[in-house]
């Protein structure tokens, strides 16, 4: 016997004008999702552009699949190619990526330290 409820055309109806729902939504409209705290931060060197010979310090704050999130104290333009060097158990690990989004940090500590947050698509 299946207890699965079939999906009908009507589904669940939501009254978007309900005052209780409007109150809840108004309290969340300025929320910013930020998953940086789910990964142990790791110091890295960030090389901007294909021919960069010297790196600048950054912090790897998130990594999964083909995505890296970096914090730096300097801006990096969207679309920029970057090389990220970091120390791993077996030596230096080098990863190339492209900046798909970049912005100034929005947390209080980000603003205090001039942090910029960059999302990279890793190649």
Automatic annotation (TrEMBL):
Species name: Fulvimonas soli
Superkingdom of origin: Bacteria
Lineage: Bacteria, Pseudomonadati, Pseudomonadota, Gammaproteobacteria, Lysobacterales
Protein name stated in the entry: PilZ domain-containing protein
